[in-house]
Specification:
The complex is a heterodimer of chains A (152) and B (78).
Chain A lengths: L2 H37 L4 H8 L2 H16 L9 H7 L2 H31 L4 H27 L3
Chain B lengths: L3 E5 L1 H8 L3 H8 L3 H8 L7 H11 L3 H4 E5 H4 L5
Antiparallel strand pairs in B: 1-2
Classes of the chains: A mainly alpha (152), B alpha+beta (78).
C-alpha cells in the first residue's frame, strides 16, 4: 500500500463526506416536497410541482455531485475506494448510525400518527404521508448521524 | 467484562519507529482515521485489524493491546 494510495483514500473520504452532505440535503428536500404533496394533493404545492419539469432539477443534482467530485473519478474497484469501503471505523460508524436511526424512526411513529391524525386528510393519504415522513426521517437521521460519528 | 477496558500502545510504538498514523495505516491496509480512532480509544478494533496492526509493527498483538481494570486506568491517557 503506497503513500499515494493513502493520500487518495483520504481524498476519497473527504469527497464521500461531501457527497453524503449533498445527499442529506436532497433527501430532506425531496421528503419535504413529497410530504407537502401528500398533505395537499390538490393544493398549491401540487399545482406548482406539476408545472416544474423534473429535468432541470435532475441536472442540478448531477452538477452538484460532479462539483463535489471536482472532476475526479473513483472506480469502485480502485484500491483507495475498496480500502475506504472496507474500513472498520466507517463500518462501525454506519452500523451505529443505522441502529440509532431505527430507534428514532420507531420512536417517531407515535407522535407522527398523532400529528397526522389531527390533519383532515383521508386515511390512505395519511398512511402515505406517514410512510414518506418515516422514510425521510430514517434516511436523514442515518446520514446525519454517520456524518457526525465519522468526523475527526 | 464491563469493569475492564482495552488500552493500547500504538502511539508509543509508532514513535519508536518514527511512523506517522498515515504510514501505519498504509502498512496495515486501513485508513488513517481507523488508526486514529483506535489510538485515541474511540474504537475497539476487531481481532483481524488488531493482528494486522501488530504485523505491521512487527510485534506480538499483546504488546500493543492490553486489558486494564477501569479503576487503575482512570485518569490515564488512552
Amino acid at each position: 500500500m503506497s503513500q499515494a494510495t493513502d493520500d487518495r483514500s483520504e481524498l476519497f473520504l473527504q469527497f464521500s463526506q461531501r457527497k453524503l452532505t449533498t445527499l442529506l440535503v436532497i433527501v430532506l428536500a425531496v421528503g419535504a416536497a413529497g410530504l407537502a404533496l401528500m398533505l395537499t394533493p390538490t393544493g398549491t404545492v401540487w399545482r406548482a410541482v406539476s408545472r416544474i419539469s423534473l429535468v432541470p432539477v435532475a441536472v442540478a443534482i448531477v452538477l452538484i455531485v460532479q462539483m463535489t467530485l471536482r472532476g475526479r473519478r473513483w472506480p469502485p474497484d480502485s484500491p483507495e475506494v475498496r480500502m475506504a469501503m472496507q474500513d472498520e471505523w466507517r463500518r462501525t460508524n454506519m452500523n451505529r448510525a443505522s441502529r440509532l436511526a431505527l430507534v428514532v424512526v420507531l420512536l417517531a411513529q407515535w407522535p407522527l400518527a398523532l400529528v397526522l391524525g389531527f390533519t383532515q386528510i383521508p386515511a390512505p393519504r395519511g398512511a402515505m404521508a406517514m410512510a414518506m415522513a418515516s422514510i425521510t426521517l430514517g434516511l436523514a437521521t442515518q446520514i446525519a448521524l454517520f456524518l457526525f460519528f465519522d468526523r475527526e | 467484562m464491563g469493569d475492564e477496558r482495552l488500552q493500547n500502545t500504538i502511539k508509543v510504538q509508532r514513535a519508536m519507529r518514527d511512523l506517522t498514523q498515515a504510514d501505519l495505516a498504509a502498512m496495515a491496509g486501513v485508513t488513517r482515521r481507523s488508526v486514529n480512532a483506535i489510538e485515541t480509544g474511540r474504537m475497539v478494533p476487531s481481532v483481524l485489524l488488531a493482528l494486522k496492526i501488530a504485523r505491521a509493527l512487527g510485534i506480538p498483538v499483546e504488546t500493543i493491546f492490553t486489558l486494564q481494570p477501569r479503576e487503575e486506568s482512570a485518569g490515564m491517557a488512552p
